[in-house]
Amino acid sequence: MKLLLVEIKLHLREWPFLIFTIGLPVALLLVLGLSIPDMTQRAASGERAVDTQMPSMMTLLALLVLACNVVPAVLTAYREQGVLRRMSTTPVHPGRLLGVQLLINLMVGAVTTTLLIVTGSLVFGSAAPRQWVGFVLVFLLGSAALQAIGLVIAAVAPNAKVAPGIGSAVMFPLMFLGGMWVPRDIMPDALRTVSDYSVAGPFAQALRDTWAGHAPQAAHLAVVGAALLIFGGLAVRLFRWE
């Protein structure tokens, strides 16, 4: 708990980046929802983009920024500064620091998602996720899988300067496959197949389904769960404390 409180204080000192991480998805939801008429028009199904598609995309964006940029940058900096090496000589294993970092990022992601839900409700009259149990399950599973990818990036990045570049190179393709620019519904079949087997595609679709009140599909949960096992295993095998 003391380690958690110390790390929270250190994160709060970087408040400009923290505000950017939380504020960017919320700002994009507002700007796109208010400036593009199609976002608030009802489709044949009766749903609007601001009800399910946009909130799920902005949640994915927030979690990708945390996983691909924040996690690698912080951990590679700690490794360069010798923090992890020094902790390994104390009763507090550096693995606890790693766990605290993941917990803090999960908290930031949860705060951002809550703000997206509240903003959507107040500004656009959007409903909160209607399938709450499924939504929480998908959110936790997807967050863990994305952060596992972040740990792999932190493991292979040679230093803190290179880590953000590698993270961005991973983040933008995942954003595309998740449907950030081209909705998954209108993707060509070949691209849709690639998206179905990426982490971002099934995660975004499962978020959208639970937001609309549907249970997440077993295939989507299986892909995200497999990604968590694969990248989590790689992170354990490749991660360097010094």
Number of helices: 10
Strand content: under 5%
Counting DSSP E segments of at least 2 residues, the number of strands comes to 0
Q: End-to-end distance, in Å? A: 24 Å
Helix- and strand-based class? Answer: mainly alpha
User: Uncertain segments of ≥5 residues (pLDDT<50)?
Assistant: none
Mean pLDDT: 88
Describe the structure.
With 242 residues, this protein is mainly α. Helices cover 74% and strands 0% of the residues. The protein contains ten helices and no strands. It has helices at 2-13, 15-35, 53-80, 83-87, 94-124, 132-156, 163-177, 189-196, 200-211, 218-238. Helix 6 packs parallel to helix 10 (218-238). The longest helix has 31 residues, at 94-124. The model has no long low-confidence stretch (mean pLDDT 88).
